[in-house]
Amino acid sequence: MSEARKGGGAVKPLRIDDLLQRNVYDVDEEPHIVVDTSKCLECPTKPCVHLCPAGCYTLVGGKILFSYEGCVECGTCRTVCPMDAIRWEYPKSGRGIYYRFT
Fold first, then answer.
1. What confidence tens digit (pLDDT) does each residue in 33-78 have?
2. What's the pTM?
3. Domain count of the fold of the chain
4. How far apart are CA 44 and CA 46, in angstroms?
5. Which residues contact 79 (CB under 8 A, 6 or more apart)?
6. Which domain does 84 fall in, by range?
């Protein structure tokens, strides 16, 4: 359910951050995404920073910092990267995100 009851029966939509926090992760020690950050330095738009729904990519001092632990496995980053800097695979079987729809 994507809405929550609040107060006297009013319905308030949940934010994406609230929905993502309900999920459970079984994070593998071996990353399923590898980023060639040297290629990222040449990228003029850095779309991964703006389009990753989980916020796994951040820009700090002109450099991309990446953390795979919160990945929702949508594949957006590999699709939007103009520099071909992202090697993306699904996590090993049984690892990764478990979506909780409550």
1. 999 999 999 999 999 999 999 899 999 998 999 999 889 899 999 9
2. 0.73
3. 1
4. 6
5. none
6. 23-98
